[in-house]
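Sorry to interrupt, but I need a hand with the structure work. Could you write out one complete protein record for me, on any chain you like? Just paste the record in under my message, thanks.

. . .
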Amino acid sequence: MPGSLSPEIRQLTGIVTTAELLATGTTANQIRGMVSSGTLIPVFRGVYMRAEQASKFSDLPGGKHLLEAAAAVAVIGNSAVVSHQSAAQLYGIDLLHKPGPQVTLTSRERDWKNRPGIHVYAVDLPDSHRTVASGLPMTTAARTVVDLARTLDFKAGVVAADSALRRKITSKPELESAVAAQSNWRGVRRAAEVVAFADKRAESPLESISRVVFRDVGLPPPDLQVWLGGKVEPVGRVDFYWKKYRTVAEVDGALKYDDPTRARLQLKRDALLRADEFEVVHFDWQDITKAPDYVAEQMWRAFRRGASTAAKRKTAM
């Protein structure tokens, strides 16, 4: 049945329930003994992982959450699929905010009550929005992104959508189709705006939220990932470029500043771009997330300088 935890993934992950153990003749005392000895690891009430199998996953990237998601599906039953933040983690879709400890599932059935460690969204789930990934029943990547865009804020939705498009986990038409299927749902208008705004060229969550901030403070939309400068070959590829103003904006994560070699290369590239009469402005996470007015002020100053340079260059031609 779609949505059930397959025997293969049960065997692979070592997921087992109290009822299944009792059905094999294992007594309640024996179960308690296996828990005490570490042979069984309790995940949710009445659901365990066999330690030997679980250890093969626990050190893998995302392995711990895969085990927890498998256990959650076993708790809820045949109608449940992994969705929202949990599905995003298993697909490798970027999330703006660190997900909570709960496993997030979606079920067609309306009478589920959330259990400790599990949050169930009781909403419609067409078969076309269901798939199997990482061995688990899950919402499709497109449905996952749209669910996130409906239930989270705009920036968080853009981060997820940009990431999924960049990684080619889904496509714009698939996202648009998922939005259309939820046309009367709460939050779908925001999801539609997220999908329209999403851009696969954004290469990090910081670039994604920077695009939102640029829009929110009234800056014209930039071009992304543009090669610029140099007479023989380009000096480098920039994060954001406004051709009309000959202005570049770069958004820098902490890694760039922590690596002296990268920092020196960035300084050299900036110097070459400025020698070619481009305005270059840098922002970090703190600027983008905490000081949008500062970002706007610096960009408009750069635009004025860049527009003057562009006019002079045009006159000189």
Observations:
- DSSP finds 15 helices and twelve strands in the chain.
- The domain at 205-316 is CATH 3.40.960.10 (Endonuclease; Chain A).
